[in-house]
UniProtKB/TrEMBL annotation:
Keywords: Isomerase. It comes from the Bacteria. This is Sugar phosphate isomerase/epimerase. GO terms for molecular function: isomerase activity. Residues 21-249 form the Xylose isomerase-like TIM barrel domain. It comes from Mycoplana dimorpha. The keyword S-adenosyl-L-methionine does not apply. InterPro entries: IolE/XylAMocC-like, Xyl_isomerase-like_sf, Xyl_isomerase-like_TIM-brl. PANTHER family: HYDROXYPYRUVATE ISOMERASE (PTHR12110), INOSOSE DEHYDRATASE (PTHR12110:SF41).
Length: 260
């Protein structure tokens, strides 16, 4: 059964974490997704403290983002953090503009680099994949868009598909969902406000309150391998509003399933 989670990056401006976890639990979430700032030193003691806060609020963290430098150079520490927190799926979330390849060969090689980085984690029984933004769908002069090359260069990589960023990148989410249905292990569920609206929230919207056809998108995602639907908003002004309205939208589209 698919589960509904919440990307904690969306709550970075609403700390402390204990209050965030309490709010999310009250809204009906049972899972959250971690990101780098939550475990900056990769200290096991930090992870144990974070786990205790999660447990006090009935939450788990089955998925998490880690930067590529940590994934490549701090393997044992990342694995220990994953063990403590119960993380089952690791996603590399971003590539800075200055590090992005300029051609098809470079993007394919980047996919191969991720493939190499994934090996110790996959050997430990963890899922390992890439989380997209919009730049992976920008055309290049000598080949298909970078997202296709990343997945080709890393044939064992999973994909955490951020549907709104696909659309922001000018691509058709339905085409990509269908083409890579068996590679999608998690989905970021977020929405885009109508043009000129929600400028104080960087043009994002609560799920179901923007322009993306989430009913149709959920139907398209149904046959994929996605196990986690994760609510995200890059700059919300009201965390409670975001959390409550977004989970209500997703639950309504999955009325036949029990919301975990």
């Amino acid at each position: 059964m698919r589960t509904i989670g919440f990307q904690l990056y969306s709550a970075r401006n609403f700390l402390p974490l204990e209050s965030v976890f309490r709010l999310l639990a009250q809204a009906g979430y049972r899972e959250v997704e971690g990101y780098g700032a939550l475990y900056p030193s990769l200290d096991p003691g930090e992870a144990m403290s974070l786990k205790a806060k999660l447990e006090r609020n009935g939450l788990t963290m089955p998925t998490a983002h880690f930067g590529l430098d940590l994934l490549e150079h701090k393997v044992d520490r990342v694995l220990e953090i994953a063990r403590i927190l119960g993380i089952k799926s690791i996603y590399c979330p971003y590539l800075a503009p200055e590090d992005r390849p300029a051609d098809a060969a470079g993007w394919r090689a980047f996919g191969a680099r991720l493939q190499g980085a994934s090996k110790p984690y996959r050997n430990a029984g963890l899922d390992f994949g890439w989380h997209n933004h919009d730049f992976e769908f920008s055309p290049i002069t000598d080949g298909p868009v970078p997202m296709e090359l990343i997945l080709a260069g890393g044939p064992d990589l999973s994909w955490e598909a951020d549907v709104a960023w696909i659309a922001k990148g000018g691509a058709d989410p339905f085409v990509w969902i269908k083409k890579y249905a068996d590679r999608i292990s998690s989905v970021h569920v977020k929405d885009i406000a109508p043009a000129g609206e929600k400028l104080d929230e960087d043009g994002w919207a609560d799920v179901g309150h923007g322009t993306l056809p989430w009913g149709d998108l959920m139907a398209a995602l149904a046959p994929t391998s996605a196990k986690h639907f994760i609510v995200e908003h890059d700059n919300p002004s009201d965390l409670k509003r975001l959390a409550e309205r977004s989970i209500a939208t997703i639950a309504a589209f999955h009325a036949e399933e029990r919301v975990p």
